[in-house]
User: Fold these one by one.
Assistant:
Number 1:
Amino acid sequence: MITALLCLLSSPLLDSDGPSWHGDVEAIVKQHCGDCHSSSGPAPFPLQNYEDVANRSSFIEVVVREGIMPPWLPSASGLPLQSHRGVSKLEMQTISSWIKGGLPRGQASEVSSHGVPEVSSSKADVSIRMPEPWSIPAEGGMNWGRRERDKRTFVLPLGNPEPLRVKQMRFETSAPKAVHAVSFLADDGGYARAVDEREAGPGHYMTGDVNDTPSGALGSVGVGSRTLLLPSGYHWEIPARSDMVMQVHYRPTGRSLPMQESLDLWLSKDDPASRPVRTLLNMIWRVDVPAGEVSELTESWVLPVDIDLIGFTTRGSGVLTRHELSATLPDGQSLDLLDIPDFDPHWRQTWLLQEIRRLPAGTKIVGSWTVENTESNPRNPFIPLDRYITARRTGVLATMLHVAAVDPVEDEALKAWHQGMVRSRPSVQRALQPPTQPVSEVP
Ligand code: HEC
């Protein structure tokens, strides 16, 4: 036994005993880290070659073990999502043993690329770009006197004479290290444009919501995921003569960066049966949490028609720590749709389901949010603590369910029902007035 071990230790095959860089770790890093940790990516340093990784190996081990990296908000307890970014237990063990084994290099070999969803490489049908750059400020400045300013909305005219059926969008940023989540909607009423014209220079300071439509109704792209590709047979519908409204969340980096974003659209042209994707809000429209307190908020409604569920976009600020969305089917069976155990507004994006899920009429959708207005919440932007009171008709805390009705008649019914629900919220002005009498609808 001892002889055998000694023999092995002294053999030149020592490398193959434990994991090596080329044999094992390079592929893991390439798959889970490389897209963002590259010179053109959003992360602050590259993780591309042996030195990049070996020189930071213990830091890397900690952030991966703690689930800080790669950034990905949903846990595995909801419905399976496309492009899930987690590192498996086995991969984690491989990284740990490689570090324990003294960071061996191993033999160089080809590393195969990983399975990102197939996206169209053909030329886009519509390309729009900010006509002039805007400078991301070195420091955000104060946002309504409460926290650092970190978002701005831009209006990009599409000038489309006809409605568009969009099946894929690809966003490009000129400032990948600063630009985080970017949310889209189409405005055919000129509303965002009118707001934009009140401010000098590109863009405006208000959020990207337009009337009853939440920013993100056409999805959001996030850090390291700049493409949104709908499953075949579905499209986003953009009315004729629309503007694309784009709300950009950025992180000030300490130096001013020019930002000139562009968006490419691919259209669904040869599929007359393609169905439009609608966005349903499950939301808390008014939040009021005293300083130092934790509050659990819930919202539920019942689907009026059968729908196909395609994906989710969640929004909230740093006071939101946990969010869960579940469904109770008409037969009483319950289903976890989405679970975000540790929300971080900078890592939001649209999550598309691996497989479309039919939910029948009568299904109850239940959302729950934990708001921690405390000092122990590391992401609370409202320090020093204050009463956190805010309202927004399109949801302060919200998950947008991207769905499609099964036929045009039910699609009309779904739209009318959803509009009625959003419009039943009292106006924000009333909600935020000093409480002369209690607002009965407060969640
Ligand atoms: C989706 C993009 C993305 C992916 C994928 C990603 N990172 Fe990161 N990483 C970032 C960004 C952006 C930062 C900068 C920190 C921030 O903005 O919070 C960062 C920061 C880090 C840091 C510094 C942490 C800190 O607290 O300052 C380490 C270490 C790290 N990443 C390692 C990894 C490793 C290892 C992987 C793969 C297992 C990985 N990252 C995957 C985007 C990514």
Note: Residues 297 and 443 are 7 Å apart (CA to CA).
Number 2:
Amino acid sequence: MFEKFNLSTDDVNQLGLLGALLIVLISAVIIGKYIKQMKTDTSSGDLTGEDWDGIGEYRNPIPVGWALAWLGTVVWAMWYFLLGYPLNAFSQIGQYNEEVAASNARFESKWKDPSKETLMNMGEGIYLVQCAPCHGIEGDGIDGKATGFDRWGTAAGVLDAINNGSKGLGYPMGDMPAGLASGDDAKAIAAYVASGMKGQKPASFSACSSCHGEDGKGLGGQSPDLTIYGTPTFVTEILNRGKLGSIGDMPKFNDGRLTDMQKEAVGHYILSLGEK
Ligand code: HEC
Ligand code: HEC
């Protein structure tokens, strides 16, 4: 793989070295010529009339060669920017993105309509790589360092949100304050929300509806849609938003690191941790 550099057999490097020596040589000759000329030359011609501390300026026309080179550079720069390399030609990043897209497409077609079991296995693999470092291998949240999935997504998780408030998901409405309901009221609300808001709505849900809406759907994106709390869709929403937590930030997973299916899979997996 890696060959030791050997100048005597390496044509390209030999040429490079030759070129470098020529450049040094030519520069030395030219610099020498001008230094000599500066010593002997006398100047003549029209002055512009400006005078900076005794230094004047000649009224010289722009040298044609220089002007052409300058115009050429401008034209070339426009061509380069609009048609040349940066916007149109080969790009490593572009190639990488294309390869990732192709690989994702292969992935999507290979795992089309996955069974619940497939999603669960896939989710476990993703979880152990992407989430376990913060949420713990068992999903316990590592002593409160991150959310524990033994509770989150269940009625106990809703109760935690009611008791402690919630912040950091970045909804337009901002944070949710703690202690909006308590005691049996809070328990009844938690059970109702965790059940997907089906069945009899407890009267105390009025403590929530001002922000989450009478139907719990989050007033058109102002706050989280509670009807999907505890579903993989809600997890996907969180993964796309990131969570700026009190003890540290959870990164956003909306950069293509995970496909939609992988987000759903890891959602199924973490929610299974609370079903025990
Ligand atoms: C003042 C407005 C407001 C009220 C009132 C309110 N919420 Fe929220 N709720 C929010 C906002 C905003 C968020 C998103 C907060 C965040 O960034 O984590 C949220 C988040 C949640 C979450 C998601 C928590 C998580 O872990 O992801 C649940 C569950 C929830 N609210 C339930 C309730 C319940 C139940 C009530 C009634 C007791 C309620 N909320 C009352 C504004 C409110
Ligand atoms: C860099 C650490 C880190 C990584 C990696 C991480 N999380 Fe989190 N996550 C956190 C923290 C910290 C919180 C809790 C923030 C808080 O409320 O204080 C959190 C909260 C959550 C929540 C609850 C959000 C809410 O609204 O209460 C879910 C769900 C979640 N993470 C899922 C995941 C999944 C799935 C992965 C892997 C794809 C993941 N996290 C990767 C740090 C991380």
Note: The CA atoms of residues 63 and 122 lie 70 Å apart.
Number 3:
Amino acid sequence: MAGKLIALLLLSTFLIGCQSDQKIKERNSAKTKHPINPNGDSELALLMRDMFEESDSLKQLVADGKSLTGLKKYKDIHSAVPTDPAVKGPVFEAFAQAYVASINELESADSASIFKFNSMVDKCMNCHTEFCPGPKKRIKKLYIEE
Ligand code: HEC
């Protein structure tokens, strides 16, 4: 019974590259309990998780008006292999470039800029609208209310 459940969870990990929050939660809890599938996550998915974490920490700094330096630029976004190879192409590249540019903008601001931070989150949302709507609900929570 438990074996079947694990098999099912693993299967869904392979089949659904771009997942809803619920799926991510299910999978993450399955993984901590049963770390049997270390290669199930794509490079891009792992990178995205880092990006999410960093953006979430940045949100606090910006909200507190702290200055921002040493931001990770996540240039690997161009080379990281996605779950679904069909994702990569000129459209993805354009969205990726816009995202990196927005991080540069944010860092070059004299003081923490809510406007520039939110504009960076826009870049996450834009690409996700095109390729990966699942996590949008979660990404949306990064926006700082002005
Ligand atoms: C250029 C396009 C693009 C940009 C920009 C982008 N994403 Fe993604 N994101 C994707 C794609 C495609 C996936 C699916 C990755 C996969 O499964 O291989 C993804 C997956 C994710 C995931 C799910 C990862 C998982 O656990 O499977 C999260 C969370 C995420 N992105 C957050 C963000 C955040 C936050 C930003 C902005 C800081 C961002 N993304 C910017 C394309 C993008």
Note: The CA atoms of residues 97 and 136 lie 19 Å apart.
Number 4:
Amino acid sequence: MKKFGMKQKLSGLVSAACLLVVGLCVNNPVLAESVPWDETTKELGQTGELPAGRLSKRALQALSDTGKGLFSAQFTPADGAGRPNATQAIIPTKTKRPRQHTLLRTAGPDATACSSCHNQPVLGGASDFVTNVFVSEGFTQADFDSVDPQFSNERGSNHLMGSGLVELLAREMSRDLADIRAKALRTARATEQSVRLPLLTKAVSFGYITAHADGLIDLSEVDGVDADLTVRPFSQKGVMTSLRQFTVNAMNHHHGMQADERFGMAVTGTDDFDGDGYFNELSPGDISALVAWQATLEPPVVETPENSDWIAAAQRGKEAMGAYGCLECHRSTLPLDSLDFYDPGPLDVVGTLSINDVEEAAIYDLSLLHWAASLERNDSGQVLVPLFGDLKRHQMSDRQNNALANEQLSQRFVDRTRFMTAELWGVGSTAPYGHRNDFLTLKSIVLAHGGDAKAARNAFAEADEKAQLDVVAFLKTLVIAP
Ligand code: HEC
Ligand code: HEC
């Protein structure tokens, strides 16, 4: 580990005393022993040094058990929960004046635990409308207390099952796109002519890139991915790079628990950015444990219904989805070369630990996990990840169908009406639906599609009711195993 020292275990008793004399005292493990009833989270600091190298099955299990504990923990002020002087923004941002509430339903912190929202039907799952989050970069309206869409984009809690595989797919796709860009530049220089190449990875097209002989690049035909050609698989907008980045964001947003790798001295020049009297609230090791747990979560499965009519209907429904064009975006599988999950990963930038910040990253070999054997492979040995998605953003509304055009704020420079294809694995367990979690039936969210999905939506809309129900029958077999 290059840049970060081992986290000092916070002492709850000392921390409680600190609250009374904020600013004067530091957490000091020598002054008091932690006791089981001191209202602190015991898993914090347990990971110590950042894990490095290939972890054994047992070491990976132990690390993800700690992560599971942190995901379920109800953080308290004695852990450093709350952020009186910091906003929910991803880039460390101070509030203009100290906040009045420890918890605030709109601008956050809005929960005590990650598991308060991600819990249906299992830990790491999705949730109902009531756990919606009000996403706002927060630079101008940090402390909004209204759910009016002029202040934030309201999003429903989606599930995290199989998200290690999702991140691995995105990393490989980003690598392919970077290779295509490099090839275009090389060829343009060598031939002294403009070169236009398709941005094709895993049979998903992200448009075209053109390189000119003078080294300039034309990105005007790039489609569904950021201009840096990094496939960002997380958030329904498709704007977050990694589980590690999302975890650091979510800890600050939802709980006011600030990770050292983003809010600590090295990045912000202060030990207590959020001004709650606590430093080093989350060590890099704590974040690694949380990533290990999320990255190893079992992917959803296709359930075979007990009812034989349902089996037949689901079969017809899957075929119909192919015929309507649904599977153009909701790809039944994407092929994955390697199950080695590196953490920290290759694509993060300052504020989230990346592979370049450490001497040796940890490798979580997902093939060690009990569920890995059940994943199908193709003839070239690639794992076929059954996500029913393409990790690409699409225009989702048009003049006739504008139900998904409800957001008013663009996020990270992406059009308000573009969203990343929802991965449909698990959709049978995660009602309600849509990015705002406000479509109560599968049929209604399918009919809400527009824009790039207009033709598929219309084919579905024109089918008779029985054929529509076949599609629902299939979607209902895509479940999160209890
Ligand atoms: C108040 C409810 C709530 C809490 C608490 C919460 N989340 Fe989430 N989570 C959400 C919502 C809503 C989204 C979807 C965000 C979006 O699409 O912009 C989400 C998305 C995610 C994603 C991305 C999933 C994907 O496939 O796009 C990850 C990873 C995640 N949360 C991890 C966490 C972690 C780790 C914690 C605890 C630090 C946490 N969440 C706490 C509501 C919550
Ligand atoms: C052009 C790409 C595209 C096509 C074609 C498409 N979808 Fe989607 N689908 C999406 C996107 C993007 C979302 C996320 C919408 C949002 O923002 O809520 C989505 C969401 C969904 C959801 C909701 C998932 C959830 O967890 O809330 C279902 C169900 C669904 N699609 C089924 C279908 C069916 C059935 C068809 C064919 C009739 C279809 N889709 C065609 C892109 C597409």
Note: The pocket of heme C (ligand 1) is lined by residues 110-111, 114, 116-118, 131, 133, 135, 155-158, 160, 163, 234-237, 243, 246-247, 250-251, 254, 290, 294 (CB under 6 Å).
